[in-house]
Amino acid sequence: MIRRREFITLLGGAAGWPLAARAQQATMPVIGFMSARSPEDSAHLVAAFRRGLGESGFVEGQNVAIEFRWAHGHYDRLPALAVELVRRQVNVLVAVGGEPSPLAAKRATSTIPLVFGIGSDPVSLGLVESFSRPGGNVTGVTLMTALMEPKRLGLLRELVPSVALVGVLLNPVFPAAARQLQELEQAAQTIGQQLVVTKASTDEELDAAFAVLAQKRIGALLVASDPYFDTRRDHIVVSAAQYRMPAIYQFREYAVAGGLLSYGISITDGYRQYGVYAASILKGTQPADLPVQQVVKFELVINMKTAKALGVSISDNLLSLADEVIE
């Protein structure tokens, strides 16, 4: 038989556990993570982000919570996602997957600390005042990949020096698109290469672009850096193989998926750094005191299996430049 006082103590203890759990959950900091990409193509990137958090002792579900929002390549969804996370009053807002994400996030808040991940110049985009002194509530990492299109064109020219036409696949609604096109056209003029530029920002336009490139009989293809293209990576790689187009892309993931060449940074390293910066802010560092990080190491990856399937000969010089060769 349980005495009344003992019963009240037991009852209080039983009721107290959920209250304690709720209190712990309420005090646990929350990271809002929004991306222009999709979760299906970003699992390894989220893992790298969690590694960056872990380096400072933050483990999801134990002492930090993460709320994810994905645009699946549809940039027009990002403003609503940003507003949703701001209303959630997250402690840090991590906006990645290319320029459209942090631009939407910055419009949504001027107070919540914001960590961005982009591929171009954050100063010219108006995200920060300078690399060393970002100012305001914003800092982050630039992968510089959107600024490397001329280098990719040069590598493509090294691969197939005698082709008359090189195709370019560009997303016209990507904020860096105008600069990408301008720099590509200048580089092409310098080396005397004629370009066939196609534009796509939807799945229908993507298929139509490949049909046009095939009709024009291009000899090689440059897929410009763009988060929407990343979400359609497998489809693009398959389409290039179907039309037998030797192609170059921005990330190693394309070459692993069967693309011929990739030239860019390690995107997983970038996402790890996003986690490091988010953790630093959770520990009390102000975004204005964290200089914008710039990735400077680029890697060339060659898929030899794809080269053989396309009947493309890889020069000794190109092989000597490769950081990784996929057999």
Structural account:
It is a single chain. The protein is an alpha/beta fold. It folds into two domains: 4-144 and 267-294, 3-Layer(aba) Sandwich (Rossmann fold), CATH 3.40.50.2300; 146-264 and 299-326, Response regulator (Rossmann fold, 3-Layer(aba) Sandwich), CATH 3.40.50.2300. The chain has 14 helices and 13 strands. The strands form two sheets. Strands 7-6-8-9-10-12-13 form a seven-stranded mixed sheet, with helices on both faces. Strands 2-1-3-4-5-11 form a six-stranded parallel sheet, with helices on both faces. Strand 3, helix 4 and strand 4 (114-118) form a beta-alpha-beta unit. Helix 3 (78-87) crosses helix 4 and helix 6 (149-159) packs across helix 7 (177-191). The chain is elongated, with a radius of gyration of 23 Å.
Strands, count: 13
Low-confidence stretches: 1-25
Q: Tell me the span between the first and last alpha carbons.
A: 75 Å
Q: What is the residue-mean pLDDT, rounded to a whole number?
A: 92
Helix fraction, binned, reads: 40-55%
Q: Oligomer, anyone?
A: single chain
**Percentage beta strand:** 15-25%
**What's the CATH class label of the largest domain?**
Alpha Beta
Order of helices and strands: HEHEHEHEHEHEHEHEHHEHEHEEHHE
Please compute the radius of gyration using only Cα atoms: 23 Å
- The CATH topology annotation of the largest domain reads as Rossmann fold
Shape summary: elongated
Decide which structural class fits the backbone.
alpha/beta
CATH-level-2 architecture of the largest domain: 3-Layer(aba) Sandwich
- How is the biggest beta sheet arranged? 7 strands, mixed
**CATH-defined superfamily of the largest domain:** Response regulator
- Widest sheet, order of strands: 7-6-8-9-10-12-13
How many separate domains? 2
By DSSP (H or I, 4+ residues per run), the number of helices equals: 14
